[in-house]
Design brief:
CATH topology: FAD/NAD(P)-binding domain
Radius of gyration: 20 Å
CATH class: Alpha Beta
Strand content: 15-25%
Structural class: alpha+beta
Number of helices: 9
Length: 378
């Protein structure tokens, strides 16, 4: 690709906007095509988490600084309350943030609008309500295509008390967890599951009743939405012969279903490949491959432990620095790397799937729910 050609990107999520910013700053002409009328259209002002334990060499603010990306309004997470299936409380803490809370959606100060402003300031053109075929662009960053995990969330306004609570109970969140965050007057309750996806509404109500029973607090201006997680391993992260970043390229943490750090890092790596003419797939395998395989094993261990294992995990987290606990899970050690192909064989989907990726691994599912069913509610 020569230096005067326009670089086209499909998708104005974190991956696409990170790539657009870096490419534009390097002097390239960049056009980002976004099918919706705004950034963050599938979010409702909900609090989301950028994990900060998978890379011990660089924390999230340092990554943003290194990439020259504008920092959103974020709040560090250094403590939390975990609850097991019997509602026993476990208080965890870390010296350094294990995660950062950001707000998602089209509102002022969200991660989405902050990255949009950065891309536009760098010179990128963002075309809203613009649909393009993946084969016609240089980078695909359109987000997940089909749900391997599903979450229903409720965003609201509340008091300014900080609450970070996570419920590990397979009976109300099979294979997943329920969570309550209230930070700076905003709140989000959600239930994330990876099995029996068709039952999400029932699980959501049961988990809400259980986790919100801890104390009473105001909840105003409720907005509900669904979101979903895309779990696959793609040696060639692409679509229709084009490189794909973020969840479009199967970049996501398998353990807790968190994808924002992967989105930004993979978008930046895709920009690097486009600028240098490098092989994005090879770069991605080198940068993320081992971590992704370990993430798959982490997910297997998380589910295999059941209620007892999750309670044990919560108890362990109270005894040591929580960021250190998470970092140990993410470390690509020899045992987990050796287990990865066994887990992949056990969970392998041998039928059709809707990931729209080149040859890849994905997990067999009990029931498929397609993306058009997962619109905003409320």
């Amino acid at each position: 690709m020569n230096g005067t050609s326009t670089i086209a990107i499909a998708g104005a999520g974190p991956a696409g906007l990170a790539a657009a910013t870096l490419l534009s700053r390097a002097g390239r002409t960049v056009v980002v095509h976004e099918k919706n009328a705004t950034v963050g259209a599938r979010f409702v002002g909900d609090l989301q988490v950028i994990e900060d334990a998978s890379d011990r060499r660089e924390n999230v603010p340092a990554m943003f600084t290194r990439l020259g990306l504008p920092a959103p309004s974020w709040v560090p997470a250094t403590s939390a309350e975990f609850f097991d299936a019997r509602m026993r409380r476990f208080e965890i803490a870390s010296k350094e943030p294990y995660a950062w809370f950001v707000t998602r959606g089209p509102g002022e100060g969200t991660l989405d609008t902050t990255l949009l402003a950065g891309a536009q300031q760098a010179g990128a053109e963002i075309r809203f309500r613009s649909r393009v075929e993946p084969a016609s662009v240089d980078l695909v960053a359109t987000g997940p295509q089909t749900p391997d995990g599903l979450a229903r969330e409720m965003a609201f306004e509340t008091d300014r008390t900080t609450r970070v609570r996570v419920l590990f109970d397979p009976s109300v969140a099979p294979g997943g967890y329920a969570y309550l965050f209230t930070v700076g007057g905003r709140g989000t309750f959600g239930c994330a599951i990876v099995r029996d996806l068709g039952g999400i509404d029932g699980y959501f109500e049961k988990a809400k009743e259980k986790l919100l029973s801890v104390d009473a607090f105001p909840m105003e201006g409720r907005r509900d939405a669904y979101s979903f997680m895309n779990f696959a391993l793609a040696p060639e992260p692409g679509r229709d012969g084009r490189p794909a970043a973020g969840e479009a390229g199967a970049f996501q943490d398998y353990l807790f279903g968190l994808g924002m750090r992967y989105a930004i890092a993979s978008g930046a790596l895709a920009a690097e490949a486009l600028l240098t003419g490098g092989d994005f797939a090879a770069l991605a395998r080198e940068r993320f491959g081992r971590r992704q395989r370990v993430s798959l094993v982490n997910r297997f261990l998380y589910e295999a432990g059941g209620a007892f294992g999750l309670s044990l995990f919560a108890r362990l987290a109270t005894r040591v620095d929580f960021r250190s606990v998470l970092s140990a899970f993410y470390r690509p050690g020899p045992v987990r790397l050796a287990l990865a192909p066994l887990v992949a064989a056990l969970w392998r989907n041998r039928g059709l799937c809707a990931h729209r990726l080149p040859p890849h691994w994905c997990r067999a599912r009990e029931r498929e729910i397609r993306a058009p069913e997962l619109g905003r509610i409320g």
